[in-house]
What we know:
There is one protein chain. This protein is mainly alpha-helical. Helices cover 68% and strands 0% of the residues. The protein is elongated and about 70 Å long. The two termini are 47 Å apart.
Amino acid sequence: ELLFRRSIAQNGFSAAQDWVSSIAGDERNETYKRQAFDRVVRAMVYRDPSLAAHWISQNVGESFAAGDAVAMVAERMSETSPSSALKWMESLAGLPGSAAASGYRAALTALTAQNPDAAGAWLSKNADLPAYDELAARFAQAIAGLDPQSAVAWAQTVGNGAGRDEAIAAVARRHLQEGGEYAEADLLEAGVPQATIDAAGLDRLVEKRLASITLIDRSVSYAYAEEFIGKVQDGADAASVELELVLPADPHQLGGPSMPSGHLAVSPQMQCVDCHRR
């Protein structure tokens, strides 16, 4: 890598571009040429993003230009102008689906953070994009914390049935996380089914519990999650189940991962004071 950067510093990007062009485009060298192209673009994009964008535009129909290069340039351009990055992406006719999706995703994410209304307007005008479902689902999740009504409406535009259900569930999870004490009511008003809200709430509860646990063994967390989910799905009250699983009959017996509540222990030598501090 150091030699590569020195070579660019001494000979310029034109020499690096010539090197990539000299690599045979046959099947045996396809991966190598794509990696070389990405490598040059990675070095180029921080010094001259416009040159990198132009080079990709010149090679948009080539398979070696369908790697990570497009997303790198779109992300870099988005740092100063997400709208310009989206316009550049629109100009890349014939770009393979995966490369196009990653580029649009980087640019739209940046525009959403900067101006959600503008991002929504752009998305509305580009509903025919092959990557639309993914982009709409991500946009819906991004705005779910502040505007659940709009977020659900966007999630419902996802064309694929299973993808649409997951997009709505993702909106519910995000709004339950960020929407405050009336989050559930907001989601119901937005038309999210109660069952979806309940499932999203369970996901959030498990995530919060697992995030707060110091684990001695990752398998312990999985076992805890399975037991927790199973009991709640069987109709038990979530708060009661949590207390039942966290606290054994005798809290002073907490000692290690083999105990019913061993997920709280950090070692078999754990002392009472350690537990109480937690």
